[in-house]
Amino acid sequence: FLKYLEISDPGLLNYTTFLAKVEMCLFHIFKVLNTSGLENVLTLCHGDSKPDNFMFRKIEIDLEDMECEGLEGILIDWQGGFLGSVSNDLMWLLPPFLEANTDNRGLLEFALEYYCTQMHYVLSSFGKS
After folding, report:
1. What is d(CA 94, CA 112) in angstroms, rounded to the nearest whole number?
2. Contact between 38 and 30 (Cβ < 8 Å)
3. Under DSSP, is residue 75 helix (H, G, I), strand (E, B) or coil?
4. Which pLDDT does position 15 carry in this prediction?
5. Which runs of E-coded beta strand occur in 36-124?
6. What pLDDT was estimated at residue 118?
7. pTM of the full predicted structure?
8. Is 79 helix (H, G, I), strand (E, B) or coil?
9. If pLDDT is split at 50, 70 and 90, which confidence band does 63 have?
10. Beta-ladder partners of 71
């Protein structure tokens, strides 16, 4: 199916390349989530967590002897919110992330690997893998 998409619309190559990599990491995690009965992994999902629905501001962070700047973010426009899978909002963020980072494939692969590792930790904490 991914090959068909690439042939029918070459502009989708960034997406299909990414989806081929996702298949290796995330589909196993989704399968475990769907068959594990881990209702405790459900979370409040936004349902449309694209970058346009985030607002950021710079903040000062004071940690004991260290001061630094950071970003504080809020997610707005919650009319599509629901209780669902912990990965739902991540999937909404992937297409803009892919489009914005087409020249930096290393960042995308790092982000995906980090997400997979963190999800594995969560599943392991429930005795699943």
Report:
1. 10
2. no
3. strand
4. 73
5. 43-45, 54-63, 66-75, 82-84
6. 77
7. 0.47
8. coil
9. confident
10. 58
